[in-house]
Amino acid sequence: MSAASCLLTEDQFLCSICLDVFTDPVTTPCGHNFCKTCITQHWDKNDKCQCPNCKKTFNTRPELQVNTFISEMAAHSSEQQVSKPGEVPCDVCTGTKLKALKSCLVCLVSYCETHLEPHLTAKQLKRHQLIDPVENLEDRMCTKHDKLLELFCKTDQMCVCMICTYSDHKTHDVVPLKEEYEGKKAELGKRDAEIQQMIQKRRLMIEEMKRSVELSKKDADREIAAGVQVFSALKESVERSQAELIDTIKERQRETEKQAEGFIKELEQEISELEKRSSEVEQLSQSEDHHHLLQSFPSLNAAPPTKNWTGVSIRPPSYEGTVVRAVNQLEETLSKQMKKLLEVELKRVQQYAVDVTLDPDTVYPYLILSDDGKQVKHGDVKKKLPNNPERFDKCACVLAKQSFSSGRFYYEVQVKEKTDWDLGVARESINRKGHITASPQNGYWTICLRNENEYRACAGPPVGLSLKSRPEKVGVFVDYEEGLVSFYDVDAAALIYSFTGCCFTQKLYPLFGPCVNDGGKNSAPLIISPVNHTE
């Protein structure tokens, strides 16, 4: 049946009445085929029982026989898919185009299942190269020689035919198309593996970012809760201090009013007694009775018993200093809260402690480093050291070996018994030759001590610092992305100074400046100390 089907055209599977693939095909006595329903309805509508194709008339309606061959072939044809938009159609099909299963690179034709049959059975056609169906097969032909583009010129990176290799591409590196295809396919596989690796890395980055956001949210929630707690306590403290201040002032006012009320009551009683005596004196002075006046005169002439009011007065209470004392008390409460917060903050930044050692390639020739690279002090003798670009030649400084270009880091330095020192961080490209002015503009974020008690932040211009206590150990904390450099008095758990809003684009190195010996007054070393996490 397969061989026979190759000889049939698509039109032979179509009913001439409905123009569609046969459904229950039947054959008339004159040999023509129709759908059983189509021919039956056709004869029902017409007076004559006539064949629609050859017009032969039958005296009586003939008995229709099922055409099993056409039925099987029509069913087989209907099983094949009709070509849809975007799919390659069969070039041989007429009328309804079926979906192509293969394209032949020799014939330059695309075939459906039925029309592909000869290529699968005929000996001569079996040698043809079949590929998955593609459109525009003519693009695979050399426009110059009208031959199949079956070779690839690696020199010009283009497909060529066999004749091209004897003309325009004679001396070029030409390989079979399949060989180049396999090579390019391997490259694509490698590229796809690289792309998949890039995708995986980015997915991991997304997960890491999500985790960072979650951690950030937890940190934010914790800070908000801590902030609300602190400010609620401060608010309660302020309200309590205000209430106590008002109560104190009102109590003093009540005492003043009570004292005045007592004095007024006494004065009113004396006034009443004096008015009574005045009335008696007036009555006696008008008496015509000589005897009575003389007898009553001694008792009425004497002054009635009264209090000596000399020096008695009501002085308004003094409120000077009352508000100031209340604010001072509030300030003490605030200071206690600040100390607690700073202790918590110091504990957090100490989690980013790093191991730092001094770099001998950067040290100023008069400085002396300890063998473990943890201490530096100024000596009196200049050592003979190579004047390499990394070395300070005029400033008594040394950098750490370690550098940082992201994240957060923290270290502590003992400055006990020193009268002068410099501490902080510096960017990689700083000038290390000649006299240097430390400032953020020049790549330095440092604080310093001068003349035993003059603390300054080298902010350009310098900022004087007022410290409550003399630090013996200084903690240095850097948040690279946040642009923050903070200095702490470790023992007092106090913030000394912070550089904020910094823009870091290079590696940062911890910087240590023990300053000059000053005749032994400043001979104590700067010591990089292990971090003892605050309890």
Please give the structural blueprint.
Layout lengths: L1 H5 L18 E3 L5 E3 H10 L3 E2 L6 E2 L6 E2 L1 H12 L22 E3 L4 E3 L1 H9 L1 H4 L3 E2 L19 E3 L4 E3 L13 E3 H109 L4 H12 L20 H28 L17 E3 L5 E4 L19 E2 L8 E7 L6 E7 L16 E7 L3 E4 L5 E3 L7 E7 L4 E6 L4 E6 L8 E6 L12 E4 L6
Antiparallel strand pairs: 1-2, 1-5, 3-4, 6-7, 6-8, 9-10, 9-11, 12-13, 13-24, 14-23, 15-20, 15-24, 16-17, 16-23, 17-18, 18-19, 20-21, 21-22
Helix pairs in contact: 6-7, 6-8
Features:
Herpes Virus-1; 35% helix; 8 helices; 535 residues; elongated; alpha+beta; 18% strand; seven-stranded antiparallel sheet
Describe the structure.
Helices cover 35% and strands 18% of the residues. α6 runs antiparallel to α7 and α6 runs antiparallel to α8 (322-349). The chain contains eight helices and 24 strands. A hairpin with a 5-residue loop joins β18 and β19. The protein has 535 residues and is of the alpha+beta class. The radius of gyration is 55 Å and the shape is elongated.
Measured between the Cα atoms of the first and last residue, the distance is 94 Å
| Helix vs. strand class | alpha+beta
Overall CATH architecture of the domain at 351-529: Sandwich
Question: Based on CA inertia axes, which overall geometry fits?
Answer: elongated
Which percent bin holds the helix content?
25-40%
Summed over residues and divided by their number, the pLDDT gives a mean of 88
Describe the largest sheet.
7 strands, antiparallel
Q: Could you give the count of β-strands?
A: 24
Radius of gyration: 55 Å
Unreliable residue runs = 1-7
In what range is the share of β-strand residues? 15-25%
The CATH superfamily name of the domain at 351-529 is: SPRY domain
CATH topology of the domain at 351-529: the name is: Jelly Rolls
Number of helices: 8
Strand order of the largest sheet: 12-13-24-15-20-21-22
Tell me the name of the CATH class of the domain at 351-529. Answer: Mainly Beta
